[in-house]
Structure formats: structure tokens, C-alpha cells
Design a protein that fits this description.
This protein is α/β, with parallel strands linked by helices. About 30% of the residues lie in helices and about 25% in strands. The chain has one domain: Rossmann fold. Helix 4 links the parallel strand 6 and strand 7.
Length: about 260
């Protein structure tokens, strides 16, 4: 296994705590760039909660910081915030059709491990969220390893990919729906809720009422209620755009903050 970790940009964290890290791994298409934001009072003798924010389809690691000032978020709530790159259309999964797109392996074996090694992370308080494709990815990673996360969230996420086969590059990562529908069924999040129903971990998600994926989000919420999963679903006016995500993520971060031990 090949791993290269190198620092691209480091600014003095006491004045502007933003760092760019790059990771190379044999199971991803090219090196992954991540933005890391540290609280301005970051100290070597303290532990900090960790928040991963995943970008949407066609975006990159800079997307979240272009939507909301993540240095301010880090300072206000005391989170270390990490924004990795999702390679435009990786869907943050281990692709069954592309051996060079094994994002889950990269996330758990490389990214999370190295962030915990490099920074003072309170491993009992790790959170993950994302928008659109990143919202799908956040729940996918949480469902796969719920033991690693305190909670997960997502905004405007596609929770039933069988309703949108072939959209947003899915055919390149998940395969052709007509010939391999079993792959879509395997990764569809609403089909996987049974796996977390006994954990008692709280989750949060939201979707704008003018978003075309609103209905699958509503059905996901109803399934959570049926299974008695502790869930917060925020339904509010909004579309699939930056204006909506800017206001939505603030509620999610506050939700995570209130869960910290």
C-alpha cells in the first residue's frame, strides 16, 4: 500500500488556522486534497471534536468554505473541521465497477487515521455531514462504521439512489442500473436503516421543500420514525443551492455541538 502525506500550505494557526493536506493512495484516482481548520486557541495539551464536511457532485474540497466561513465555525464551536475532496463524482463509496475509486477504504484506512495521528482529536466526538452527493456519502460512511462516529448529518442528500439511476455520474461509479440493479439496491440508504436502528445514535438531515429530491427525504424520515431511530428532520423552504446549504449547515453544527460530552 502506498501512502504519501505532505503539507502543501501551512499558515500560522495562531492567526489563520487553515492547513491544506494532500494524501495519495493506490485505490483513489489521484491525490486527495483536504482543507483542515483548527480553532484559534488550538493547544497541544487539549482534545478537540472533529467534523468532516463532504462536498457535493461536481464540487471539490473548497466548496464548503466557499459557502460558509469554516474558520469562524471552528472558532465558534471548537471543532477541527476537515473537508476532503470527493473526486467530482466518487459518491464516497467503494465502487463495485472501478477499482481506482475505493473511497471508503481511503477514508477509513488513510484519511481518518492520519487526521487522528496528526491532530489532538477527541475520538469520542467525531461527526460527519455533507451536501447533496456528500450528504449521501456522510450517511454511507456512518452506516458502515457507526462505532467511529458520535453522529452524522446530511443536507439535500439522495437517500434513495434507485429513484435517480444514472444521474450525477452514478453509472461510472455504481454501474448501469438496467444491468446491475443490485448495486443500486445495496447502496441505497433507505434500505440500510435496519443496520443502525438498535444503536440509539442521533442523526440529523434536512432538505428544501422546493428541491426535487425532497420526496425521498420525506420517505426516509418516515422510515426512521417507523424504526424508532432518533432522528431530526428539518424541512424548510429552499432549493438545491448554496443559499439553502449556508443556512442548513448552521443548524446541523449546532446539533452536533450539543451532543458533545
Amino acid at each position: 500500500m502506498k501512502l504519501i502525506l505532505f503539507l502543501v500550505v501551512t499558515l500560522l494557526w495562531k492567526s489563520f488556522p487553515q492547513t491544506t493536506l494532500v494524501f495519495d493512495y493506490e485505490k483513489i484516482p489521484y491525490p486527495d486534497t483536504c482543507l483542515v481548520f483548527l480553532p484559534e486557541n488550538y493547544a497541544e495539551n487539549s482534545k478537540y471534536p472533529l467534523l468532516f464536511l463532504l462536498h457535493g457532485w461536481s464540487g471539490d474540497y473548497k466548496q464548503w468554505n466557499e459557502i460558509i466561513n469554516l474558520s469562524d465555525i471552528s472558532n465558534q464551536y471548537g471543532f477541527i473541521v476537515v473537508c476532503p475532496d470527493g473526486f467530482y463524482d466518487s459518491w464516497y463509496i467503494n465502487s463495485p465497477v472501478n477499482k481506482k475509486s475505493q473511497y471508503e477504504d481511503f477514508f477509513f484506512n488513510i484519511l481518518l487515521r492520519e487526521i487522528i495521528i496528526k491532530y489532538n482529536i477527541d475520538t469520542s466526538n467525531i461527526f460527519i455531514s455533507g451536501l447533496s452527493m456528500g450528504g449521501f456519502g456522510a450517511f454511507n460512511l456512518f452506516f458502515n462504521r457507526p462505532d467511529l462516529f458520535k453522529s452524522a448529518g446530511r443536507s439535500s442528500g439522495v437517500l434513495d439512489i434507485t429513484a435517480f439511476p444514472g444521474n450525477w455520474g452514478m453509472d461510472k461509479i455504481i454501474g448501469d442500473f438496467a444491468t446491475t440493479p443490485e448495486f443500486y439496491l445495496k447502496f441505497t440508504l433507505i434500505n440500510r436503516l435496519e443496520s443502525i436502528k438498535s444503536l440509539g445514535k442521533e442523526i440529523i438531515f434536512d432538505c428544501g421543500t422546493e428541491d426535487r429530491i425532497f420526496e425521498v427525504n420525506r420517505l426516509f424520515f418516515e422510515k426512521c420514525r417507523e424504526l424508532k431511530i432518533p432522528v431530526t428532520f428539518i424541512s424548510q423552504p429552499g432549493r438545491h443551492d448554496k443559499d439553502y446549504w449556508r443556512k442548513a449547515v448552521k443548524k446541523q453544527i449546532r446539533f452536533f455541538y450539543e451532543l458533545i460530552n
